[in-house]
Amino acid sequence: MRGTTRRTLALFLPSAVVLTALAGLVYVSVQQDQRSLANDPQLQMAEDATARLSSGAQPQAVAAGLKVDLATSLAPFVTVVGPGNDVLASTATLNGTTPLPPVGVLDAARASGNDTVTWQPASNVRQAIVVVPFDASGGKGVVVVGRSLRAVEQRETVTMLASGAAWVATLIALLVACRIAAGLWGGVPEPEASADNTPSVRAA
C-alpha cells in the first residue's frame, strides 16, 4: 500500500506542478487580453478628439453631451485639459466636480505621445483612461478619455472562477489517473533472480 502511494505521488506531483504553471499562464494571458481590450474605444475617441482640436474645434464641441457620473455610469467620458492643467471642457463628474488624473500622468502623455493607465479617482471607482496630447496656444493640452472598469473586472472574476474550477477538476482527474497507473505499475511482477543474482528467464 505504501509503495502504491509513493508511486502515485511520484507521478502526480511533477505533473501537478506543470499543470498549475500552464493554468496560471493561460489565466494571465486571458486576463491581460481582457484588460487591454478595455482601452480600445478610449484610444479611438481620444485620437479623434485631438484631431478635431488640432483642426480648430472648440473644447466644448469635443467634450459635449450628457454628464457621466464616474461613480455609477459605464459610459465613456471626455475631458479636455489645457497646457496649464486647467479643465477646458468635460463630460465627467464625480461628487459634483470634474476630477483630473494626477499631473504626472498628464505630463507623461505630453512627453511620450500618449499614456494608458488605470485611474482610481475615488474608492471603488476605477477607470481605464487614455491620455493623448494636442497642440494648443501656449503649449500642449491633453485629452483624457476613460470608462469604468466595472464590467471588465466582472468578466475577469468570472474568468478566474472558471479557470480555478477547471484547474481543480483537472487536478482531481490527474490524481485518479496517477493512482490507476501506480496500481498497474505495482501489479507487474519482477523477474526472479537466480543464485548468482542474474535474472532467470522462464520457459514458455
The secondary-structure class comes to: alpha+beta
Task: Count up the domains.
Answer: 2
Number of helices: 5
Poorly predicted runs of 5 or more residues: none
Question: How does the major sheet shape up?
Answer: 5 strands, antiparallel
Q: Would you count the extended β strands for me? A: 7
Strand order of the largest sheet: 3-2-7-6-5
The proportion of strand residues reads 15-25%
Question: Which percent range fits the helix content?
Answer: 40-55%
> Which fold name fills CATH's third level, the topology of the largest domain?
Beta-Lactamase
Order of helices and strands: HHHEEEEHEEEH
Distance between the termini: 31 Å
What integer value in Å does the Rg equal?
Answer: 30 Å
The average pLDDT value, as a whole number, equals 86
- What is the level-2 CATH architecture name of the largest domain? 2-Layer Sandwich
* CATH first level of the largest domain: Alpha Beta
How is this structure best described in words?
The chain is α+β, with helices and mostly antiparallel strands. The chain has two domains: 2-31 and 155-183; 40-148, 2-Layer Sandwich (Beta-Lactamase), CATH 3.30.450. It contains five helices and seven strands. It has helices spanning 2-37, 40-54, 59-62, 103-112, 150-186, and strands at residues 68-69, 77-81, 87-90, 92-93, 115-122, 125-136, 139-148. The protein has a five-stranded antiparallel beta sheet, sandwiched between helices. Strand 6 (125-136) and strand 7 form a beta hairpin. Helix 1 packs antiparallel against helix 5. The chain is elongated. It starts with a helix and ends in an 18-residue tail after the last helix.
